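Morning - S-adenosyl-L-homocysteine inputs below, output right after.
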Amino acid sequence: MKSLNKEIGTVTLVGAGPGDPELLTIKALRAIESAEVIVYDNLVSQPIRDLFPSTAETLYVGKTKGCHSKTQDEINQLMVELTLSGKNVCRVKGGDAFVFGRGGEEMLLLSQKGIQVSTIPGITAASGCTTYAEIPLTHRGLTQGCTFITAHADKKLDVQWQALAQLNQTIVVYMGLSKTELIRQKLIEHGMSADTPVALIENGCSSDQRNILGTLDQLSELKHQHDVQSPALIVIGQVVSVAEQMQWLHQLNSKIQPDTPSSTVLAKTA
Ligand code: SAH
C-alpha cells in the first residue's frame, strides 16, 4: 500500500464476500489484517468484523434502507480526510465492491482527488448465496446465462421487463425484497411463465441462511408467509429446480450436506 505522495494515504477497496469469513480471498484477508483504518458497511458480517485487528481504527458507515448512518458524500469525504491526514484506508464492503456496491463511484472520486486506490474483488452475493443454496447460476440444458439486476433506484425503477422476461436466463435480483409483487406482475405480464421456479435467499452464506423455493406466481406470498428479511436475494429461473432436486436427493439419501450452512423450504405447489 505505497502512496504516490508520501503524505497522502491510500485506499484499498476490499470486497468481503457475502458473509462467511472463509469466503474472503487471501488478498482481502491480508488487506484487513494489515489495515490501519477500516471503513466498513453494514453488509460486512459479524464474523468478518471479528477479524479486524485490534490495532486498526474501525469506522462503521453502514447504510440500511431508510436509515443512513452516513450519506455517500459523507463517506467519500471521510475517506478523503483520512487519506489527506496520511492514513491508509481499508474500505471494506459486502460482496464485491463493483457489483451494486458503489465501489466504482468511490474509486473515481478518490482518484480525481489524486488519491491512490486499489481494489480487491470479492464473491458477490449472487454467486455465494446461490451456491450455498445448491442453485447453479447456469446449468447445461436449462440456461446459458444469467443477469444480475437491482430493484433499487433513487428515482424511477428503469428495468426492461420485456427483455428480461424473454431472455430465458437466470435472473438474480439484488435489493428486490420490497418489490416482489412488482417483479412477479411485470415478468408474468411480459410473458414469463407463472410456474417459473424462484428462490428467496435470506442471510446468505451465514449460519442463518434460509432458502425459500417456489414459483414466480408465489413470489410475494412466499416473502410474506416466511417473513423474509433483508439481506435477501431473489433468484428466478429454471436453475432453481436443481435445488429442488437436491432436496429430494438429500431426503432420499437421508443426509444433509455438511458444508452448506443453509436451510431450504420448498413451497407447496398450488
Ligand atoms: N456489493 C454487494 C451487493 C450490495 S447491494 C455484492 O456484491 O454482493 C445489497 C443487496 O445485496 C442486498 O439488499 C441483497 O439483495 C444482496 N445481498 C448481499 N449480501 C447478501 C446476503 N448475504 N444474503 C442475501 N442477499 C445479500
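Note: The two ends are 57 Å apart (CA to CA).

O.
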